[in-house]
What does this fold into?
Amino acid sequence: MATKIRLKRIGRRNRPFYRMVAMDSRNRRDGAAIEELGWYNPIDPNHSYDLKDERILHWLGEGAQPTDAAKKLLRRAGLSHRWHLMQQGLNASDLEKEMKKWELNREDVLKKRAEKDEQKAKSVAKKKEVEVAEEVSNEANDTSSIDEGTSDDQPDNSILEQPEISESDESSQEEE
It folds into this structure.
């Protein structure tokens, strides 16, 4: 039997919630599962998943293949790194040391991401402030140039004035 570790959707419409399960690959997405291995909530950023580490490693040892979405979740939890180290043949003490290193590195990576996001948000806010200031100054310049050009008190007669016609021109027009 081809066994997969995959996500099974159980959430309502527009509120997804998933269970990570081991199941036969021929079953449909929400079909009967062999075993539940944890859950994943993409909406809650604080506590978005809970996985049964030992059972997942057991199923990986049995030959179960994780889907792409399940693999990303395993990577995020550190289980894929643990599985990789187990495949290399590390003993339990070395495995724990490597996982502690991974956890510390993971914390640093998350802190750097948060700092980068804050800097990006600040730069976007500054750009918006500059754009708003430029728009306000442009509007002020446009209104001042209109005021300087013509005033409403004196109408512009240059358009209404017609060229003067001399007497010789009038006589030539009458003859024609």
The chain is about 55% helix and 15% strand. Residues 3-78 form a domain with the S16 Ribosomal Protein; Chain: A; fold (CATH 3.30.1320.10). The chain has a mean pLDDT of 82.
